[in-house]
Write a structure and sequence with these properties.
mainly beta, 109 residues, globular, five-stranded antiparallel sheet
């Protein structure tokens, strides 16, 4: 292993900011990276955020059905997934997602 390797890069360590309380399973945006919280946290506490892997994320009615392989984004203001590339890139639909359910997303953090 290289002497300068810090970690595998699968988990981002994030300190919860003012106005946020994070629960395991929540989508978390840190600038241009979005992942899924592995742990709970309140303001000032650290949480672990997965940036690799496949996770089920809620699919809001406003998005509609999502076909497998489609790019999925995160709308930071609405705090939900989107297909609008104005959001932060989250990953790819790993399987089809049905409106009102979940869509499995391969995180690309």
């Amino acid at each position: 292993m290289a002497a300068n390797k810090v970690q595998e890069g699968q988990v981002l360590h994030y300190t919860v900011q003012a106005g946020d309380n994070i629960k395991s399973g929540d989508l978390v945006a840190v600038e241009d990276v979005v992942g899924v919280a592995i742990t709970d946290g309140t303001v000032g506490s650290p949480v672990a955020v997965a940036v690799e892997g496949v996770y089920d994320v809620p699919l809001p009615a406003s998005v509609g059905n999502v076909p497998q392989g489609k790019k999925v984004y995160y709308d930071v203001a609405a705090k939900e997934v989107s297909l609008d590339d104005e959001g932060v890139f989250l990953g790819y639909a790993w399987e089809d997602g049905v409106v009102g359910g979940v869509v499995p997303v391969k995180l690309m953090g």
